[in-house]
Write a structure and sequence with these properties.
Number of helices of chain A: 11
Low-confidence stretches of chain A: none
Strand order of the largest sheet of chain A: 6-5-4-3-2-1-18
Shape of chain A: globular
Strand content of chain A: 25-35%
CATH topology of the largest domain in chain A: Metallo-beta-lactamase, Chain A
Mean pLDDT of chain A: 96
Helix content of chain A: 25-40%
Oligomer: homodimer
Radius of gyration of chain A: 22 Å
Amino acid sequence: MEKFEVNILGCGSALPTTRHFPTSQVVNVRDKLFMIDCGEGAQLQFRKARLKFSRLNQIFISHLHGDHCFGLLGLISTFDLLGRTAELHIHSPEGLEERLVPMLNYFCRGMGYRVLFHPFDTREVAQIYEDRSLTVTTLPLRHRIPCCGFLFAEKQRPNHIIREQIDFYGVPMHELNRIKNGADYATPDGRLIPNSLLTRPAASPRRYAYCSDTVYMPELAPLIAGVDLLFHEATFAHSELSRARETFHTTARQAAELAAAARVRRLLIGHFSARYEDESVLLAEACQLFPDTLLAHETLCVSVG
Amino acid sequence: MEKFEVNILGCGSALPTTRHFPTSQVVNVRDKLFMIDCGEGAQLQFRKARLKFSRLNQIFISHLHGDHCFGLLGLISTFDLLGRTAELHIHSPEGLEERLVPMLNYFCRGMGYRVLFHPFDTREVAQIYEDRSLTVTTLPLRHRIPCCGFLFAEKQRPNHIIREQIDFYGVPMHELNRIKNGADYATPDGRLIPNSLLTRPAASPRRYAYCSDTVYMPELAPLIAGVDLLFHEATFAHSELSRARETFHTTARQAAELAAAARVRRLLIGHFSARYEDESVLLAEACQLFPDTLLAHETLCVSVG
């Protein structure tokens, strides 16, 4: 199976602790790297995770709170020191470019590559990135400031050719692409060989949903229904429900409720409040409702699907 | 002896490695904390060193390269989240306020405390801070942009009273402060008791000098002569002398030469280039010329004097 992994660089919330870095993740899709959020220290954790800077071209920022974007300056500077020439694309809510560009102009004068900013509207579900194998779509969240989650969806891949059958029916090379994409094969003497005899279906496309920071939103369920992996914030235990509501965060139990309602395959919780010395209380709470729950921690690498 | 310690939060240079954080130190003088430089992740390392945020009121930035100041935004935000009300003073070369304030206005709207900026002239030796027990003085350095080191000097403390002698000569309470500060004591019957009979001298004031980033400057020696601890950058080994000169950095051997010429008590080297997987080569090189050399590493705490 081709690589589709989530690397946790940081899973703490705004206040620093000795246990966690602020939020940052790297999604690795067939060795193309996509960063989600970039809290302070993200570049240091990136090195620790032994990921390659040169593979990172797209960064997605959920919202403009410092603990989700203060690592950008250091990362962008480092890329320049390393002689990067490839463009870097940053997708975020409105407002980042105006703040970051004056800093870059001062601290990275004469930068050798371009940073391109792509603001998105946090109120709508919209595809904001596409390549040959992947799309990224915004998931509107409700936080104290405009905020979006992201849905990473693999595209359906072509069917796999069954080599023996191709040989048996004498299918010429130039027909193979059409057949991979589902066409039947007409032999020179007029017979129609159905595609199902010539190919095996590719694995179904996998999906990863990232939802942080947000108050509990049951209405997210249809948007993330059946994803292979859901990262959801679980800043607090349910005993802190009122604090969670006030600060527009979610409890571990609520994250599990959403995972169950959306029938996701696995739930990964993170964005832990600094008050929890030991987050196993959050894990236990989520597992009661949704047993396939994992606790995020720095340098964890989880396979999607 | 009262506390005068240097805590290393980060001792790498600009490129991140898995071994080092960028530059930051905390000087602890009798539990008042002074930060020197504030690279990315400084607030995380501060927590790891188990230092108290509330004790930090003064930050000194040597120069405006990102690896020496990109941690400020996160640190300042965190102080606000923690409900700080005390003013925070930042001493740095010209230009920091203009860059930082727009970011703070956006990311820390309605901050509960004031950040006061105190730009200093990097071309002159000047006292930029003073309290009851300490002065901080700039040490002009030569780097690619305006840059200063800092000399932290304890003030001479009053002599220690010899309790038995005070009792023996029947010295009244109200005379004690004068005597601590060196006065002799005139008895009611006209005898003069010399101060040396009544007090022991306090320990001599200790001094810490911080010199980073800079090309080798032998002319620094008189400014830092005899300090108890000299932190000096040693970005490269001497085999990379031409690279050191080009980038306005120092080699380990040059740092040791300066330490020897200035007859300092101990030398602490840091700001290591990312190319050194194992910095013992730098330590060995420095020790050849100046045996009392220490290698900086994260969470190291060195006593001054």
